[in-house]
Amino acid sequence: MAQNPAALDPHVKPILVQGGASLHKITDDISKITESQTPLKWYIAIGISSSIALILFAMLGWLVWMGIGVWGNNQPVAWAWDITNFVFWIGIGHAGTLISAILFLFRQKWRTSINRAAEAMTLFAVACAGIYPLFHTGRPWRAAYWLLPLPNPYLAMWPNFRSPLVWDVFAVSTYLTVSALFWYVGLIPDLATLRDRAKGVRQMIFGAASLGWRGSARMWNNYEKAYLILAALSTPLVLSVHSIVSFDFATSVLPGWHTTIFPPYFVAGAIFSGFAMVITLMVIARWALNLQYLITIRHLENMNKVILATGTIVGYAYATEFFIAWYSGNPYERFVFINRAFGPFAWAYWAMVTCNVVTPQFFWSKRLRTNVPFMFVLSIFVNIGMWFERFVIIATSLHRDFMPSAWGYFRPTPVDMLTFFGTFGLFVTLFLAFCRFLPVIAVSEIKGMMANEAMHEAMHGQPVNAPAVPEVLEGGRH
Amino acid sequence: MIQITKKLTGKKYWRSLDQFYQTSEFQTWVNREFPSAGQDMLDEPSRRNVLKVMAASFGLAGLTACRRPVEHILPNSKGIEDLIPGRPNYYNTAMPLGGASMGLMVEVNDGRPTKIEGNPNHPWSLGRARAYHQASILQMYDPDRGLAFKESGNNSDWAKFEAWSGSVQGQLGDGSGLRILSEYLHSPSLSAVRKHALTRFPKAQWIEYNAVQTNETALPAIARVAFDKAAVVVALDSDFLGLDSSTVLPVKEYVKGRMVGDADETVMSRLYTVESQFSVTGAAADHRFRSRSSDIGGYANALLAAIQNTTSPLKVVGQTPNTDKAVAAIAKDLIANKGKSVVVCGPRQPGGVHAVVHQINQALGNVGPVVTYLNRTSEQQTSQVDAIKTLAGDMAAGRVNTLVILSYNPAYSAPADLDFVANLKKVANVIYLAPEEDETAALAKWQIPAAHYLESWADSQAPDGTATIHQPTIQPLYGGKTAAELVATLTGFKDKKAYDIVRNYWLPILKDEKGWRKALHDGMVPNTTSTAAATPNFAAWASAPTPAGSGMEVVFVPSWSTYDGRFNNNAWLQEVPDPITKVTWDNAALVSKATASKLGVQMNDVISIERNGRKVEAAVFVQPGQADDSITVALGYGRTRVGRVGEGTGFNAYAVRTTDVFGFGTGFTVSKVAGKSYPLVQTQDYDSQTEPQLVSFQPKATRPVLREGTLAEYKHEPNFAQEMVETPPLRSLYGEYDYSRGNQWAMAIDLNSCIGCNACTVACQAENNIPVVGKTEVARGREMHWIRIDRYYTGNAEDPQAVTAPIPCMQCENAPCENVCPVAATVHSPEGLNDMVYNRCVGTRYCSNNCPFKVRRFNFLAWHHDTKESQKMQWNPDVTVRMRGVMEKCTYCVQRIQEAKIDAKAKGKRWMVDGDVTPACAQTCPSDAIVFGNVNDLNSRVAKMKLSPRNYAMLAELNIKPRTTYLAKLRNPNPELEVRS
Amino acid sequence: MLPFFKSNTPVNPVYGVVGLFDRPEDLLRAGEELHHKRGYTKLDAYSPFPIHGIDDAIGVPKSILGYIVFCAGLFGFANAVLMVWYTGAVDYPLVIGGKPLFAWEFSIPVVFELTVLFSSFGAVFGMFYLNGLPRFYHPTMNFSRFGEHTDDKYLLVVESTDPRFDVEELQAVMSELGAATTEVVEA
Hints:
heterotrimer; A: Formate dehydrogenase/DMSO reductase fold
């Protein structure tokens, strides 16, 4: 890629769009991705990923036909890979909204190049996650609507609002809906751009999708307001979702689950894994779509910093858990954690610690932090580690709880593994489709950022390195 | 059940049955009296066709089920005799097992027997039943039992047999070629038939043989031990609480002796056991000594000597270093309790040892107050082993041309050295009353289906002679015949039908119809208890004590699941784990740790046990507390010709069980089979309440789940159990729900009484339509028992003590499972029950995760999918059959509570007292450990028990407020012997 | 015919005058000139991205979206509380884990989520409503170079309904202030 020397020099502030591209070039480059002839490699890629996704559907079919017994779940480990994968994907789904909303409120203008793709990733991750809460139930055809507060002529019963699982249903579905709206609202101006570049059917489609957006000042006025409000709403939402997911465990009586530290610890972990996944995808995307000059080293580096920070928080949480287990003097608690680190599942525990606590520490070094191949590998490590974290929490706490007579062990079946494998197929398929048919980068935001910089200079003669993004773009007023 | 699905699914049945329904001969055949008459439809006797007939007979079972028997049988219910739709009737009958008759009460729903309870009037049952009796009902519905009349392999029927018998009677002449092999005879009517047969054919012989015996048959009289009258009990290789007694009485009496009063004037008997394998009696014992069964004789003689102040002719070769000290202490204790102590020894021990033991009791003056002697109901003088030895000799010598087999499957269970299979081939006419298509049936000329005791007229006697007339509760499902019918037909007895044989025998004794009806109603014939026999002269019997053979010994014990093999095809019993090893679906070679390392084997390795060219291979199970150099193998597994449940389970110990090592013996060469292993499956993987030491800095912690103390501790500190766990004041974030009004159901379980005998587990399975999952699923930890029995070892790993406890759902008032259910499928009833709403459950399994006791059970797969049509007839109509994907668990038998409440309401009564409701587990518990009732009724037993200082709630520190609480176990160790912690 | 498609009978043949600018600052100046100096009120500016200061330049009022969102959020909150209370404590009361039939503690998550959900609905659909979306036809689409303003051009539109509407003046001012082209667009 075209390395910008400034990107490597800590004293010079690296710029967010390299090579002073013109507005038209940006519009053109992004739009071309969706307009030009579909490349063969895309067909190959989606061919592979969608066939993997087919495995997922086959496995789910088998599961519904036979029953949960085709998985390795048992007594006492009644939850295993199902909920592990659910939390894993939900966690990944946190980066997108975080980047869009929180970084937006904190006026981190570097978000603009990556938020669109990150939001898309969120949606697809949450979609993958959503599979599990439904299909891990013994009777999904009932669970599909009995968990919702619908009048039910069959038993005239309502959901139990004391149950964290019901909270989950509300949290996850709200999260999915709001993320989707947020994403779509951001897309509208770019869809309009595509519409205006297109002809015929394509134009009709994008015309309908962009709802007839004209980008008039009066529209932008309401639009910015809406975007700001959505950001303000999404920020507590994204924090609440993983807190509530963690309530599944925190509100139980099970030693190893019954812990007040879970909400912050889960949120940190979610951001951790989410950013890792964004890195994984962005490194591939910017290479595949030649967007190095838009998704610069600085973007990646900033995300790596977040990974380092959250990874350290997670490590701290692990330590705290052990300390409290000892300090509380609760024998059951104490045993669960000793058993976690030295019991039958020790291998999983230490795999988790290595991937989540040790590897991120490499990012203290700027050289590694800005080395693309390295960060790619490391981001994958982090995702493996975060999967193990969820598995460790669920399996090791369950398999040896209060009654020694009821202790057991968990072994996954091929169906467990293939189902999980299949979710990646679904995830990648959706993401490939997104890259092909929609603008992967928020064109109007980038252009706004650049043009407003230039305009400032022209009108008020301020230097470029003044706050580049005008408040107006951030929805501010004065 | 995995084992079953791979054979043949219920679906196939129905397909074949439907085909049958089309054909016209099926219709005609349906209208005939007995379904099995349909063998004439079978062209060649292929398994498939046999199964077809079975399938067909289910349908007929359905039909017959709707028909009440023709002869009059009398319900136990008072007043209305006719069936009230939806309400069960109860009939008293009895089940013969191990030479003893147990009085039972059978629940019959719409003509289908569905549940077994003990007959409260019966002195040897006292309203309780054991696992075998509970499961015997499944035995009756077993589709694999449905077999055909066969004559030398060709299908035949009863009529043909009658004709054949008529012709053969002439040829029998004086009967010198006629032998009749039955089990220990305790059926008066059959005895009558026997008498007739032996008078008509004077040279004929009637042989009695039980593969598993509950008392030593070599002795002239049977000892009747009143354990409740004994302050000191010494059990020498005797599992009198478990496998060595097939009735409830001994358990009841023993537990009575253990009942403790208030702390101060507590009275409690003391139990010593000396045994090779860890039995439930050993688990209950205050002092347990490991010793090879071969050395028991030594112990007996030593004790006798110590008591008579002579020197023992036999030195004890025990393994416990302080054996002599132990013997001395025991002897001292016995002498201190003259006239109120007893020494018993198990049926495995030879007559000589029994004689010595009886001498001890005589010397102590226990004969009379504690031990009395009963005349045996059978007239066979020689021991059974000798008897069958003679029979085999005659067969080998060709002196037998007609052999009638009424006993259980001798081709499989006879001593190996008798080559019974080979000898059977030498007998021209083998007539076998077959309980199922088994090893013997394959060799018999005539295969006559045997009627199950629940479907036939017969009678049997308890050890003390108490006679019960068996009432059929349903028409024979597969057209079976009784032993009396068979012999009567063959020998031309005046009565041919079972009903006539029984009735005509008893009517003179019972005077008139009224007496007959009363006897049926009560399930007992009045004044049939035999008069006490004169105390035999045991000194004469005591053969000169022979020193125990050294080297590796093998001990043969009956199995908790299959008994002697007859329950091998019984899924309930196969799945219920052994009370001590917790191994299910298999037997195993139990060895001590030391022996294992000596043999260089570990768990699941396979060893070959060889003796005089006979050998068996068995999987090794390392059993704590097992005597060194002693291998215990349970009988009744490794069947070669058995139904689909029993197929491929365990190892056949009969293969090396010869007449000279009938109970146990030495001279075996035991070696590891290299590179071979066999996975044994346990329902409990971790054996101790002490946490495993995973890392050096881990503090050693023991979880006081099951709490026990010594009698001394208890007297000194009655509340020791409650004080084992210190909890901060337990307060709820919200207010507590008020349960102070109305009926509030609760349970108290006395660990001091529980012997871990599995009766509650099987009773629960029968009452609540609980599925069986099979070995592979148990291995995954998916067994479905609603009430499981936990067994923990305490003390040192080599020679521990064991404590057992039934663990049902605790019905917590602050139930953690309820909060987390998203669809409110498990909620609390105002009467304090933790209800399951099966049709609301979506199966998130969250409740199971949040259950501290892990008593919830999930239908991971469609367990009931391949339940056979005939077995479905056993299902309790008051209980939902749960589909897959649904969570299930104990509900204190809510269906019984509801039934009782409806009855009460009809009487305009709301308040429930003891006896109104009893869950299946509490009703059957032989040791009275489980007590259930309305805790708001301060006069109820459960309320009183909860006031006991021993009462404690498991995991009370979680503030879950369990409704089921436990009473701590007490042991009464001899202060002179070191007390194991 | 759906309302947001072109209607057959235009009220007024002329919709307005459109000027196309290459640079945002020209657009701003033209806007200020027309609105503040010459008192045009019915003008609008089309741009590929929101331009800082354009609202003041051409007099776009402050958005009222905030109030809509607040009401929507309040609606969601009230609904949630009512639902949890009615289903659990009124319609089908059940004793669950010894907990009360209704309590704030366990209602909070659901209440919070529903509040957020309805607020976001308010934000998005409120914005659609205020912007009159979806609207697939608009007279400005008759402008010959319509569409370039979603790439890198900027349009200034003055509607004919403006009281001071004067084609010549408008075209003169716009081209003077740097409009690349100006055009009269009919409805």
